[in-house]
């Protein structure tokens, strides 16, 4: 197992192995073809999220077996300890033109954003942008994972109106003592 050193933000290329990558892509296809997603706009304050919907698919609810497999993979790959944590994993489908304004979360959480599109053109927007000492932009390249904590100001830039949907796997890790009801369900 490789050691994962988490400072403020970490980026890993080709995070999933081939087997897990294929399972996640299959789940994305299944979700999209069966229209098994909800709208995430109610989860965020008005000033955070675009008025254009970001669709969500809750992996725990829809595929508990895949959820457990992904958690086990994170433990093996990064050496994280989820035993005293609440882990939430959703697939986000950013509709063309959607975005998320800069925000800083007030709870003590860790976040992982994993880009799932097979290819993405930088002209399409959808950059993950964060600020520590200055602003940095990360192109949403296939199978790239970004790990960051709640103190990092971050945003997703607007996508243009005619690309494919930007698709991410979003993982949120909070303390079991944290009241997750308000955090995840408004």
Description of the molecule:
The chain is an alpha+beta fold and 186 residues long. It has one domain: Sandwich (Jelly Rolls), CATH 2.60.120. The protein is 23% helix and 31% strand. It contains four helices and eleven strands, in the order βαββααββββββββα.
Helix and strand layout, with pairings?
Elements: E1 9-12, H1 18-34, E2 38-39, E3 54-58, H2 59-62, H3 64-78, E4 85-94, E5 100-103, E6 110-115, E7 128-131, E8 135-138, E9 145-149, E10 154-156, E11 166-175, H4 180-185
Antiparallel strand pairs: 1-9, 2-3, 3-4, 4-11, 5-10, 6-9, 6-11, 7-8, 7-10
Task: Explain briefly what this protein structure is.
This protein is an alpha+beta fold.
Properties at a glance:
186 residues; alpha+beta; Jelly Rolls; 4-stranded antiparallel sheet; 4 helices; 31% strand; globular; disordered N terminus; disordered C terminus
* SSE order: EHEEHHEEEEEEEEH
Rg estimate, integer Å: 15 Å
Report helical residue fraction.
10-25%
> CATH superfamily name?
q2cbj1_9rhob like domain
Please provide the count of β strands.
Answer: 11
Cα separation of the termini: 37 Å
Number of domains: 1
Derived from helix and strand composition plus strand pairing, the structural class reads alpha+beta
Biggest sheet overview = 7 strands, antiparallel
Q: Given the structure, what is the number of helices?
A: 4
CATH topology: Jelly Rolls
CATH architecture: Sandwich
Spatial shape: globular
